[in-house]
């Protein structure tokens, strides 16, 4: 059904005269009559009946006019929701890895409260592959993902990515271990006989470990997998092995961080949206605030 015709029917239910409807909508009486007749053909039942020289709505016409109130209000709400110049309002569903939630999204929550009170966030903690799957199935509007410069990710052409920031990573080892100095290859090479700890929900850091170990001339023995960085620290402290950790993250007393250079190990974060969706005002507002976010 044509919304314009619904509007004419609704106005007729309120004004009671096709002439008054025509004046209110800036058209002619014959146009109003023709459009309501066309609407009647669309729904398959008469919507008006003559009463002397005027017309009135049939019972079906009155019911449709009642529906028109809801339909036209919903269309207006949708128009305002999608209007780039309108104040954004709505809930943005985000899937993001834990560090991005803490360092990027939580500050955005406070900024939204100050600048765009009508915009809310619904946050789900997920690793990149999980987040991108949710984005592809339209279960979230925004995915915050990461890769490493030594193990770059590939993205589907149906999405658009924007850099979110970078963070240096280091090798977490038991405190007191003397690994000496040198390149990342030299540092990693000193742990060829040690077990390694990698992420249990993502393969990116394991790829980096295997690349660094390959440069040092050995294949790492990956013995343990953990999702929590705090748990990785506890496992290192317990002597279970070594693993990659953020270089700027405070460590417990039993863990030391060894810098990795030449090559450096750099985590790169991204804000990922489905192509064509970033103009939705609430999502656009969140993306603007994320431009100033940092992971370091």
What does this structure look like?
- By secondary structure, this protein is α/β, with parallel strands linked by helices.
- It has ten helices and eleven strands.
- The radius of gyration is 30 Å and the shape is rod-shaped.
- The chain starts with a helix and ends in a 6-residue tail after the last helix.
Describe the structure concisely:
This protein is of the alpha/beta class and 296 residues long. It has ten helices and eleven strands.
Based on Cα principal axes, name the global outline: rod-shaped
Order of helices and strands: HHHEEHEHEHEEHEHEHEEEH
Could you tell me the number of beta strands?
A: 11
Largest sheet: 9 strands, mixed
Proportion in helices: 40-55%
Our count of helices gives 10
Fraction of residues in β-strands: 15-25%
**Overall pLDDT score:** 91
Defining key terms:
single chain; 296 residues; alpha/beta; 9-stranded mixed β-sheet; two-stranded antiparallel ribbon; 10 helices; 42% helix; rod-shaped
Topology diagram in text:
Blueprint: H1 3-15, H2 18-25, H3 29-43, E1 48-51, E2 54-57, H4 59-82, E3 90-96, H5 98-115, E4 119-125, H6 128-136, E5 142-148, E6 159-174, H7 184-189, E7 195-198, H8 204-215, E8 221-225, H9 229-237, E9 242-246, E10 255-258, E11 266-274, H10 281-290
Parallel strand pairs: 3-4, 3-5, 7-8, 7-9
Antiparallel strand pairs: 1-2, 5-11, 6-9, 6-10, 6-11
